[in-house]
Amino acid sequence: MATHRAQRRARTCRIRPGQRHSADRWFAGAGRQRWQRHAQPRRWRNIRGFQSPRPYFAGRCRRQPSGQSDSRRAGWRTRRLASRRRDDPTIRTSGREYSGMSTLRQPADSDDKATFLERLIFNHRPAVIFLCLLTSVFLFWQALQVRPSTSFEKMIPLSHPFVQNMMKHRNDLGNLGNTVRISVEAVDGDIFSKAYMETLRQISDEVFYIPGVDRSGLKSLWSPSVRWTEVTEEGFAGGEVIPQSYDGSDASLDQLRNNVLKSGQVGRLVANDFRSSIIDVPLQESYPDPADQGKLLALDYQQFSHQLEDKIRDKYQAQNPTIKIHIVGFAKKVGDLIDGLFMVVMFFGIAFLITLVLLIWFTRCIRSTVAVLSTTLIAVIWQLGLMHVVGFGIDPYSMLVPFLIFAIGISHGVQKINGIALQSGAADNALTAARRTFRQLFLPGMIAILADAVGFITLLIIDIGVIRELAIGASIGVAVIVFTNLILLPVAISYVGISKRAISRSKQDAVSEHPFWRLLSNFASVKVAPVSIALAVLAFGGGLWYSQNLKIGDLDQGAPELRPDSRYNQDNAFIINHYSTSSDVLVVMVKTPPEGCSAYSTLSAINELAWKMENTQGVQSAISLVTVSKQVIKGMNEGNLKWESLSRNKDVLNNSIARADGLYNTDCSLAPLLVFLNDHKAETLDRAVHAVQDFARQNDKPDMQFLLAAGNAGIEAATNEVIKQSELVILILVYICVAGMCMITFRSWAATLCIVLPLVLTSVLGNALMAFMGIGVKVATLPVVALGVGIGVDYGIYIFSRLESFLRAGLPLQEAYYQTLKSTGKAVLFTGLCLAIGVCTWIFSAIKFQADMGLMLTFMLLWNMFGALWLLPALARFLIKPEKMAGKVGNSLFSH
Questions:
Q1: What is the CA radius of gyration of the chain?
Q2: Burial degree of 659 (CB within 10 A; 0-12, 13-18, 19+)
Q3: Full-prediction pTM beyond 0.70?
Q4: What is the per-residue pLDDT across 582-612, written as a single tens digit (0 to 9) for each?
Q5: In CATH, what is the architecture of 524-549+747-896?
Q6: Is residue 62 within 8 Å of residue 43, measured between CB atoms?
Q7: 833, 357 in Cβ contact below 8 A?
Q8: Per-domain residue ranges of the chain
Q9: Cα 303 off chain centre by
């Protein structure tokens, strides 16, 4: 066969018989082996002007001048083949990646061979786009059905002993954990007027029929269960505070005044100054559907809050300008949060516009800008749609997740566009540039996303429903970024391409000197790196010292999630200032055998605990069976104050508590002690809880146990304990997972430290900032720690992977970092600034916890970016040995 081929070549090219054509020598020797090993016949056919599966010059013959040497002819073939290989990314080159810069400054490209995933994606681009489009349509329809969804159980740690005790005895407690208090204030005068009392009756009736209200427990001056008692010459006398004979006349109003004074409700249902009264509204988590009594509907907090505003506040304040209505309670607070959090949509729009303008300025290309924003919005749509598919909704805390997905998507999208712009200067079409960029950045992007997801998943250890849903939603969101920003974006760019202006600018940037990047490259120099390390150590020590002032829980009165001047906090301040019983209630449950709650020993212990609590700082008052029993016994003895104590006679005790409705259950096996606190600050809750626990350790018996805790203050205390136990654990787990991913990726402890240590510094300084700003660690702020680390690790992975490739190319560390800044560093700097500008708009939110989260995320985005650009190269100066990496392929995942 070879002889026949040589004879044919001799006839056409006038080669002497027996002399082999140079192409045949190449094809039969080492060149053929290399071609069979690396080239694909199908790809060779795509080369212009060639149809054979053999190399492009194997079927063509050019007669060389007789005086031309074999070495010159070989050089001609090498140059032609190099030209063809340069234009086709699937042909293996000599190990240098062409990007328009000097060959000496290019990193060794060890992954220039097309992978199976790359071939699968780019050989079926129409199918990829069609599947993504089909998925987007379906998930967009699902996203439109996402509704606000929150419940009382999702906001509390269900596995905590306090909450388990409350849930176990929930029916006996009358929903003390979830109530709303409506205060109706008389602007002029006091409550003892016909118009006021008629308005109060109408409001009570209106509230009674609002869905979700536990009607059996509703209490106001108009409730039959609110009674007065007095001692007369004939014995005890009593009745309803507002009797059936009430007609609004002056005489009946005087009688009402006397009944209120004798009822013991002053400071509880009636203000101390008699200018307002309260309607206590316990709530049910589920209630029968009016249209189908066999079906239960979950309480919609947003709808319930709107009904309170529309049917109560707006309606009756408009009808009667002489009254003013104040509403507080868990359901009202959550409803206000949901209403205010819809401002996230507005902030999302502002961030989108800011990102659009900055991306156009950065890329100088509208097409690539639209591609990045479109694929990132698709990621947000997919995340919301998948949340609905798995049965989740949007709550006040998970509304943060779509913005985080947008931020992470923009981060990866900018890296992709920056890489494609660099490759477009050397490629002959957009497809080649997109494939080269995909080959170069897919694995770093994938590792960064996995690190993000692992950090978010660690939040699942917190036994609070809203945080777990946030963790699941964030993990789903970063998972879809793999498809939208790592796969769909390069495929889309392979069609639309990069503008000539952007390519020209990329070529110019690649070969020109940049004073700013040259200045920043000094962070890796021998002189500056030790100074940077010293400053980082000082910052770490100072941040660690100041973060000792960081508190767990709420640090302000009212609802710290809302602004101090919000309507809810103003209403809460009004109730605290005008009533003896605040809206912050800690309920201690005293458990005994049946019929044991009226025993003298039990009542005596409750009395001792109540006295101890009333003498604890931050406690207003305490109410229990003992309170009623003492009053009754005093009344049975002509009101003599000497008899205001417990009797040892069991019959007397049983008779004294007969009318203490709501202060013991039906079989007298549970008696709650209601402790009213000044506020629910962390230190107030700690003092109250520790006082009860100390007393319980000394007085618990087999037949009498003091159990914590119900009431909103008890739930807050349980939540604070869970957060305190989880805070450090989450931080350690996040860093272990991120460090593990970096170790698996780079297979180097030095590389892992270079990436992780800047993140640790950011976390410590973030805690110091929270302590300085008076922000406590609570449900709203705890996830920011893990989320901030997840976003920040992207910067370090992208920078170090590029730095490593330049070091393998033989460049000194400072020069390698300079080249890294020119390529990847500018994208990191742009992304950090762009996202920080978008997130900082949250600071102006009407929702305080959203403003706090915006402040923290802005700080962490900037510091993570700054740490990757400043501290990472300084650490590399001491931990990385460039001379050992030069000329080596390396052992990281990016080298295979």
A1: 37
A2: middle
A3: yes
A4: 778 888 988 888 888 888 888 888 889 999 9
A5: Up-down Bundle (1.20)
A6: no
A7: no
A8: 2-88, 161-339, 524-549+747-896, 567-718
A9: 25
